[in-house]
């Protein structure tokens, strides 16, 4: 009786010990504790031994390497045997196969200790191997999911970059595999969604969710708080507006509908509209909502001047010409670094392409007036290629920039825009005019005005909400304001082919 009672107490004690280590092991499956290294460390402590987890190639996944060279490691990873136990120079070794998600090779859990493995230690090793299988499967599935999402995101970016350089054939070919029919269209709108720092991943998922297969959603490679959405379908744009309306601190800028070959132009329009959206209660704006100066110009004069200005590029092969035009459009909107990120090339490549355009056009992009007028020509060229010359054939004879900037409608637009600055007692209009003439350099403008450079920057910054345009960042907004100054006669016309100006370097009007 005494012996049987002692045996019962031993079994009960063993059961309690099993419950203790099993509970500890199960804790490692909780969401906060799923770590292979922690499980291996726990096993080493639980069995008072040395533990390693390595794959079939011998790569150590966790723990401390302690497997003899003559162990049946290869037999276990190949599947010929599932477990092995042996003694080596007074040390006891237990090897257990740990399955992994295909195609990853199986791993081996190796445990060595100085005392033989009793029932308790053997059970702990066996159950730990099962837990490690679950953890490895979860980690590998998660990693595979991350790799798939990253590859998909990279593919979306590659498609966008092909469209940016007008290679629509390659873009359609790449998109057909994953998103069949997405680019089976001639036109699309581009949207740029802006969010707070650290929120872009969540916003990207939201954009993917609401647009489904109706749009191409890309994390902007240049701006960390932007998501670019190219949508051939109007429904996607409506969903994006609804999404932005539900999210405080998120803004949406959209382009006018453009041909796929003019994706770079559409992107610039979306960024410009985004600046307006920041001042709108609905947090969204579309580029077409604002009167564009080129719409107020004589179409024949505009297209004739554009053709004359860009004629040196017409002699280039089509692919080279498209590449230079796309790079220059973006390079006039953004810095060389950001343009390079958007196009997926080096910044030296961007600068080389723009230098070549400068040389062909015999001009200098360091002059804001030149940048604004060339930007006007590129926008007009994009519209001409897409819609044709809506105003009929180009005006016979050499059209000049003076002809393009003439007309009562354009004059009224410029007067209204710049007139918004007049009520400010700081004379923002004079500061802005001088700053533009100085190439956007606050220090040079300050010397001319006899004030501090910071005062110039503050005046320019103060003009932004009044004009509803970004000025300190080069782009469409700034170029429209420059054109307004040219139309109003506040700035002299730049020296450009197709510009009829007797004194291109004449001083700024007082």
From TrEMBL:
Question: Which residues belong to any copy of the PucR C-terminal helix-turn-helix domain?
Answer: 337-379, 428-472
> Which Pfam families does this chain map to?
HTH_30
Q: Which domain of life is it from?
A: Bacteria
Q: Which InterPro entries match?
A: CdaR-like_regulators (IPR051448), PucR_C-HTH_dom (IPR025736), PucR_C-HTH_sf (IPR042070)
Tell me which PANTHER family the record gives. CARBOHYDRATE DIACID REGULATOR, DNA-BINDING TRANSCRIPTIONAL ACTIVATOR ADER
What is the name attached to this protein's record? Answer: Helix-turn-helix domain-containing protein
The source organism is Streptomyces plicatus
